[in-house]
Amino acid sequence: MSGHIMTTAEVAKILTSENNRQIWFKVQDSQLMKYILYKGFIGIDGISLTVGEVTPTRFCVHLIPETLERTTLGKKNLAHASTLKSIHKLRQW
């Protein structure tokens, strides 16, 4: 993944179930939330992910065990900082 870092975000909430971990991020600059779209793509610490949910100040991603094992996201705790990159992808219908 390449591109420019858009901003940073802090881990605000972590929900864990048997086969999934949901991590909520609070974006440092809330004005940038308009670029984070539900089911859109975002780069977190260089890892391309799909946005699971969006609120006016936060968003989350859903992580499966494979992603948690192969990336640093499985080691994130509350208040950990991450870099964000917006990934724009056009869909052809």
Describe the structure using short key phrases:
mainly beta, Elongation Factor Tu (Ef-tu), domain 3, transferase
Give the SSE map.
Elements: E1 7-16, E2 21-27, E3 41-44, E4 47-54, E5 58-63, H1 65-70, E6 81-87
Antiparallel strand pairs: 1-2, 1-6, 2-5, 3-4, 3-6, 4-5
Sheet with the most strands: spatial strand order: 1-2-5-4-3-6
- Give the termini separation: 25 Å
Average pLDDT, rounded to a whole number, is 88
* Major beta-sheet overview: 6 strands, antiparallel, barrel
Number of strands: 6
Low-confidence stretches: none
Helix proportion range:
under 10%
Q: Would you identify the CATH architecture? A: Beta Barrel
SSE run: EEEEEHE
How much β-strand is present in the residues?
over 45%
**CATH class designation:** Mainly Beta
Number of domains: 1
Radius of gyration: 13 Å
Look up the CATH topology. Answer: Elongation Factor Tu (Ef-tu), domain 3
Structural class: mainly beta
Number of contiguous helices: 1
Shape: globular
EC number: 2.5.1.9
Pfam families: Lum_binding
Pathway: Cofactor biosynthesis; riboflavin biosynthesis; riboflavin from 2-hydroxy-3-oxobutyl phosphate and 5-amino-6-(D-ribitylamino)uracil: step 2/2
Domain Lumazine-binding: 1-93
